[in-house]
Design a protein that fits this description.
With 125 residues, the protein is α+β, with helices and mostly antiparallel strands. The chain has one domain (4-92): Rab geranylgeranyltransferase alpha-subunit, insert domain (Immunoglobulin-like). The chain is built from 1 helix and 8 strands; from the N terminus they run ββββββββα. The strands form 2 sheets. Strands 1-2-6-5 form a 4-stranded antiparallel sheet, with no helix packed on it. The radius of gyration is 22 Å and the shape is elongated.
């Protein structure tokens, strides 16, 4: 079990950022391993913040993660071999089955039905 927790702070301009917080104030800087499909992600930065026991984690999204399908980037505590978190990116054809895409389709069909029903009501008066 890891002595650190990871909280997402933002995802902007191709960089995912999170706040690492230690259970103990005197904890050492965590060793973080980030992977995509079991392969390590490079250029990960862990920077100490003003308060003790907190670090900023910055993960640049690798170009391999950008494309059709679902890609999950896994963040682990390398020393404890424990998962701290993960984030997922969905793009391309995989979105066709996403619930948000389904909702958009349902809204469009509902709008079409409303127009047809209103036209029917006007014609049958």
């Amino acid at each position: 079990m890891s002595g650190y927790t990871l909280t997402k702070t933002r995802f902007r301009e191709g960089t995912w950022e999170g706040l690492l917080t230690a259970e103990r104030a005197d904890a050492p800087t965590p060793e973080i391993a980030v992977s995509l499909d079991g392969k390590p992600v490079g250029a990960v930065r862990v920077s100490a913040l003003g308060g003790t026991g907190q670090w900023l984690l910055e993960i640049p999204v690798p170009v391999e993660a950008i494309g059709d399908g679902v890609q999950t980037i896994l963040v682990t505590d390398a020393n404890a071999d424990a998962t701290l978190g993960a984030f997922t990116m969905i793009a391309g054809d995989a979105l066709a089955e996403d619930i948000r895409a389904e909702m958009e389709l349902l809204r469009a069909e509902l709008d079409m039905l409303k127009r047809a029903f209103r036209r029917h009501c006007i014609e049958t008066r």
